[in-house]
Design goal:
Number of helices: 7
Radius of gyration: 17 Å
Number of strands: 10
CATH topology: Rossmann fold
Helix content: 40-55%
Order of helices and strands: HEEEEHEHEEEHEHEHH
Structural class: alpha/beta
Strand order of the largest sheet: 7-6-5-8-9-10
CATH class: Alpha Beta
Number of domains: 1
């Protein structure tokens, strides 16, 4: 039986949450050219995959952080996934905005977060890691004890790994770029000759295809 990372990779490909176009690259908001585009919000529209992700999150958090008291989702992509996982675990949930509201209470963290609470951050996608770690910083400033982060998918960039290490934030993911490419190749979704192209992009996403 395939492991969760390969099962999830196959599921993401199956619902079109991940698109691979080595010959017709996407352009990300950062300006990077990319042969891959990942939209994990599509998971929410597929009951079977949505349930798989929620259960995998709950199992991974319970395994790695049995002392966790609160789950925190990074807005907006991880809010629904975090709520579903927290519901399965019977844990409180909060979510972290990219920046404080400019009205009302001016909150950046929505929900009840007790001082000193042991928190696991739920994220949908790890690329450079900047927005994910900004959420960690907000939680720490609010007095939370951030134990680590669990995400659906990571591209596995060295830059992101270095940033998480520097921030002292352990990162675990349910699936990853390597598993995705393996599954896509085995299912004939990409040509074997494109595998090297996809690997070169992951090693140097900023300089690829300039």
């Amino acid at each position: 039986m395939d492991s969760i990372d390969r099962k999830l990779a196959a599921g993401l490909l199956g619902i079109g949450a991940v698109l691979l176009r080595p010959e017709d690259p996407f352009t990300w908001a950062s300006g990077w050219r990319s042969p891959i585009y990942c939209d994990n919000r599509r998971i929410l529209s597929d009951p079977e995959l949505r349930s798989m992700v929620a259960e995998a999150f709950a199992a991974k958090v319970a395994e790695l952080y049995p002392e966790a008291e609160v789950l925190a989702g990074v807005a907006t992509g991880a809010i629904a996934h975090g709520v579903l996982a927290a519901d399965r675990m019977g844990k409180p949930f909060v979510y972290v905005r990219p920046k404080p509201k400019d009205h009302g209470t001016g909150s950046q963290i929505e929900g009840n977060l007790p001082e000193g609470a042991k928190v696991v951050v739920i994220e949908d996608l790890i690329s450079t890691g900047m927005s994910s770690l900004a959420a960690v910083d907000a939680l720490r400033k609010a007095g939370a004890d951030v134990l680590g982060m669990v995400a659906i998918f990571t591209y596995g960039f060295d830059l992101a790994s270095e940033r998480f290490k520097e921030a002292g934030v352990p990162l675990a993911t349910l699936s990853n770029y390597g598993s995705l490419i393996d599954v896509a190749t085995s299912e004939g979704l990409v040509k074997p000759s494109d595998t090297e192209v996809l690997q070169r992009w992951r090693e140097d996403p900023a300089g690829w295809n300039k």
